[in-house]
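A note from the maintainers: we've had questions about how concatenated examples are separated. There is no special marker in the raw files; a new sequence line simply starts the next protein. For clarity in this README we add a label.
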Amino acid sequence: MPTRVPELDPVPGPAASEPAIPARPTSPPAIPAAVPPAALPAPPIEPMFTHAPGLNWAGPGDHWSRAWALDTLGQNTPQTQALPPATDLRAAAEQPPTARDIELIRASLAVVEPVADRATAHFYALIFVHHPEVRALFPAAMDVQRDRLFRSLLMAARSADDPAGLTEYLTRLGQGHRKYGTLTGHYGPVGECLVAALERYCGSRWDAATELAWRRVYGLVAKIMINAAEAAAKSSPPWWQAEVVSHRRRTSDIAVVTVRPDQLYPYRAGQYATVETPWWPRVWRHFSFATAPRPDGLLTFHVKAVQAGWVSNALVHRAAPGDVLRLGPAAGGMVLDHGSGADLVCLGGGTGIAPISALVEEVAECGSAGRSVDVFYGARRREELYEWEALRGLTRRHPWLSVRPVVSEERAVRGETLTGDLPEVAAACGPWDGREAYLSGPAAMVRRATRALLGAGVAHSRIHHDLVGDLAAG
C-alpha cells in the first residue's frame, strides 16, 4: 500500500503581485524626426598599418580621393593637377597612350608581376561572376588556359611604346582569337575586369593617372585586335574542320597525323597551327606543319605525347582515321625569304624536325638557286631519330642538302651520327657567317642554339624561330 505524503504548510512571505498588462494602443507609435547627416559625427577612418606600402584604404589622401581629384590635403599634387575633369575622362581614355602613360604602365607591372598568379585568378573570377555568358568560351579546366589571356594583355601593354611590333603581335592575336568565339562586344567587359584586377593588386601604387594609362593602352590593344579580326573575317573562317586520313605511330610516343581540311587552308612552310580535338573542347595546342603546301591540300603534323598533355596524348593514343579535328589559322614567322639566296643552317630537336622538313621541301620545290642547306637533327637516342631515313633519302636526290643526326645520351655510335648536345655540335661544325638560321624544338634548346649560333658567326637578325613556349606543350 503506498505511503501517503503529508501536505506541507506554505512558507509565509509577501503576497505575489499580478503582472501589469498594458492597455491596447489607440494610435500608431510616433516616428522620431530624422537627424540631419551633418549633425552626426563622422567616425574617423584610419589605416590599420600606415607603413604598409601596398595597403588599400579609404581616407584623406587615399587612391579614391585622388581618383576624383579632391584636394583633401589643402594643396594640389602634380598627379591631381594632371588629371582631366571627370566629364572628360571618357574622352581622355580614348586618346593614344603618352610617354608618361608608358612609364606608369611599367611601374604598375613591376608591382603586379610578383603576384601575377593571384591577379590572374582574380581577373577570371571577375569575368565569370559578372559576365557568366563568356564562361562557355573557355575550357572546363582552366589550369593551362587561365593565365594565357592575362599574359597576352600584359605583354601587349609592355610593348605599347613599339607601335610596329605591337600591331604585328596584336594582329596575329586578334585573328587567332576568332577561333575561341571572341566577339567585338567581349572586349569592353574584359577591359573592365582587367582594370579592376590590376587596381586590386597594385595597392597604393594605383591612382587615377595609372588607371587612365591602362585604359588608354587597353583601348589601343582592343582596337587593333578588333580591326584584325574583322579584316580576317572577310577572307577566312575562324576555324577549319579537318578529317584525320592517316595516323602512323613512329615511336611509342610520336605519331604522324595527316588531315584533310574541309576547305582551302593557306599556310607557309615553317608555320604552325592550333589544333583542337573532339575529346577536349576549347583546349587548343600548337603543332607545326611537317610539309610544304601540297596540291592535294593535305596537312601533316608530327605529334609527341607529353606528360599530362591533353591534346598531344589524344592525338597520339586516341585519334584515328575518320576523326574530325578543328584547326585555327596558320601563324608564325619562321618562313623562307627566297629573294635573299643566303645559305641555310637548320636545327630541329625531336618533333621540331617537322617544320625544318617543310622548309627543306619548299627549297626543293622552288629551286635551291645555288644555296646550300645544312640540317642538324637532334634527339636523345638514335632510335628516336624517326625522320632520319626520310631526310637521308632527300640528301641522295639533292646535292645542296646535308643532314647530320645528333644524339645527346649516347657516346658510342657508328656511322654518320654525331654525339653531344645539338646546339653545341651544330655551332662547332661552323663557322656559319652569312647564313640564315632556322631553329625548332624545345624552348630551352632554341634559346641555347641562339646563343651558340651567335658565337658561330650568325647575325642575330638572321636567326629565325617561333618560340611559343608552353603554348605548344600539351
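[label: protein 2]
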Amino acid sequence: MRWFEASPRRAAPKGQNSYSKLGADGRNPVPREEHQGAAEHGHRITAAIACHVARAGGTLDQLTHLLLHPEHEGGRHAQNIALRSGQARARDYIHRVWASASTAVSSTAAVESRHHAHEDLAALHDRIETTPWHGERGRTALRVLRAHLNFAETAGGRRHAASERQAAEEAGISRQTLRNAYETVLKPGGWLRRLRVGHGHEGSTWYLGDGHEHPTGTPMSHNGTTQFPPDPDLEEWPSHETAPTADIDSTVISHLMAHDAFAHHGLGSSALMIIGALHVRPSQTVNELIATSSVSRATAYRTLQRLAAHGLAHQTSRTWSLAPRALEGIGQTGTDAAPSPKTLPARGWDDIAHRYSTTGTAAHRKALHAAERAAYRQALEQLSEHRTKAMVMVIVHNGRHVLVPTPRADEIPPEWHAPSGAVLNPTTGRIDPEWSVATDGRLILITPADQRTYDELVTAHTQALAEWESAA
C-alpha cells in the first residue's frame, strides 16, 4: 500500500503527475496517480456488487438502478463516472462490468455442502486426467496442478492456501520452474488463480479452475524456428501426434512426483506420464501410449527403454506393461523375454535416484526453503522492531484506561480534509502534521513513521472500537 503524506512535493518533469480532477474542495487538483488508485478500488467494489447481483438472479437494469442511486455508497465509482462523463458513459461501464460478472458467475458452480464439494473436486480430478498435457512444460504444469489439487482436497474445496515453497516441494520441482508453470500454462489456461498473495506466516490463497479459457498447449519458447512450415499439398504434419484426450492416473503421479528418481535429470516427468497411463490400462502399444500419456513418439520410446532398463516396464510382443511392484520402484526381469545384460532391476526409488545422481535433491530443496523461510521471518521481525506504535487517544473510565478508536478515512467528515492529503485537527482547526490520508482514501496514517500494514491497522481499530463500545 502506498501512502500519501503531507510533505512538500518536488517539481516533477513535464508530463508526469498530470492533474486529472479537482479535489473535494473544488479548488485543489488531485494528482492522476492518487485518482488512479481510488478508481481501481472503486472498480473492484463495483465488480463485487455486480457478481453478487448476478449470483442472486438479478438483471442489468436492477444493477444499474442500484449503482446509480445517490444514496448507495457502493455505487460511488459509477456515480463519479456519470458526473464526469455523463450517464451514457456510466451505463456503458456498468454494462461491461455486468457482462464480465455474468461470465464469471456462469462459469463457476455453487458448492452447497461438503458432499457437493467432494463431488466437484472429483469431477475436476477426472477433467485433469483426460486433458492432454503436451511437452515438457505441460507435464511440469500437471505436477504443479496435481500438488494444488492435493491441497484443495485437504482444504475441502477449490479454495485453498499454499505457499510457492510448499507447492514446489509437493511437485518435486524447483521454485523457479514452479513459477514458470504458473505464468505460462496454469494461469493463462484458467486452471489456477491466485486470490491473495501470502504474507508473513500465511501462504497465498488459490482457487482451482476448470481450464476453459485456453488450451494447455504452450506457445513457442523462441521467436523463430529453423523448421519450414508444413505443406498441405505434400500432406506434411497433417495433425498433432497425440490425441485430443488423455487417460492417466494422476493419483499415482502425485504419489511419485516428489521422489528424487523423477527429478529433472532423473526419469523426469515423461516417466510419470507413462507410468500413470500404464497403471490405468496395462498392455498398451506405443501408439496407444502416445495418445493416453500425451507424449511424443520419440519421448515414448526413450522413456519406455529407461523404464525397461530398470525392470519397471516389460514388453510382450507389441504391448508394454508395468512390473508387479513398479509403483514401489522395484524392478523385475521380464519372464517372457530373455534376460538382457542392459537390464538391471531396481531395488527402489532411492536406488534409481542413486543411478541418476539425483539423490538428495528433495532434501536439498527443503533445506533451502527452510533457510529462506528463516531469513524471511527474521527480516519481518527486524522490520517490526522499527515500527512505532500508533498514537491513539486514551481516556480514564472507572479507574481504567480505555482506547478511543482512531477514525478511518472513509469515516472522516469532509470538513476534516485539507489540501494535499492533510487532515485538519477538529479541536484546533489546524493541519495536524502527524496525520495524513492514504492514497486509497481508506485509512489515516497516524504517524509518518508508522509502517504497519492495512490488516494490522484494521485489527487495532477493531480492538479499540470494542473497548470503546464496552466502556460506553
